[in-house]
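QA checklist item 7 of 12: single-chain prediction sanity check.
[x] sequence parsed
[x] length recorded as 264
[x] structure emitted
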Amino acid sequence: MKKSLILLTILLVTCGGSQENISDVAYQEPFISDSIQEMSTSRSMELSTGDYIIKTAYGTMEVSSSNFQNTINEFETLILNYEGSISNTYLSTNYQGLQSYTLTVNIPAEQFDKFISDLEDISEFKNISINANDVTTYVLNIDSRLKALINEKQELEKIKSDALNTSEKLEVQSQLRYINQEIEILKDQKEFYETSVNYSTLSLEIREGAGISLFSWNYYVERALNWLESLIGYLVSISIVGIPIVIFIYSVRKFSNKRNNIKT
């Protein structure tokens, strides 16, 4: 009897210990390493970082009439030094006779800020605004859609190769044509963003007549000198052609008069 009680006691103790071990295993917290947490954090930071930023600037300058053309020449030389390009130009004259030169230039993005600084050394901006547009999200969406379309294209090509009849192949071919068009559109969009990111754009208006008022004598004197210069230029051009003609007519008449006198 005593042996039976001892065996029963040992059995109960053993079962209780095993249940405690099972309970500990069942409710054990999962282990998350620091490296996995850091990986997750870095991935979210990568998505939020603006890798695709498009910079555009708009500015105006006002220079004196005597320095107007010289400023334009220096500006165009600076563009060449930065390996930039001019995409659009427009020259106009207002009712006062003052000129305005507007142009749009593209400058390598990594040198854009220094270009603006060097440009201000030529002439100070009357006003300037610089905008930075982050399009990283758009590019990521394009990449995601491209990946999905390329995978779908591969699956359709496999279905086309396994098609049993012509009608099935034609149907798959129609879907492939549509997917190829979508892929080309997305590639063009991404190329546009990449080009816009690589080159920043400045639209600048250079105005003639800084500091000149309609009620200032300097304005009228400067206008009069310009008109006088133009008038002299016209007179010189006319004289180059007119003087030989006058000499020729005078010579012909003189020769005719001599002949008439000889006959009489």
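[x] summary fact logged: Residues 57 and 100 are 18 Å apart (CA to CA).
[ ] second reviewer sign-off
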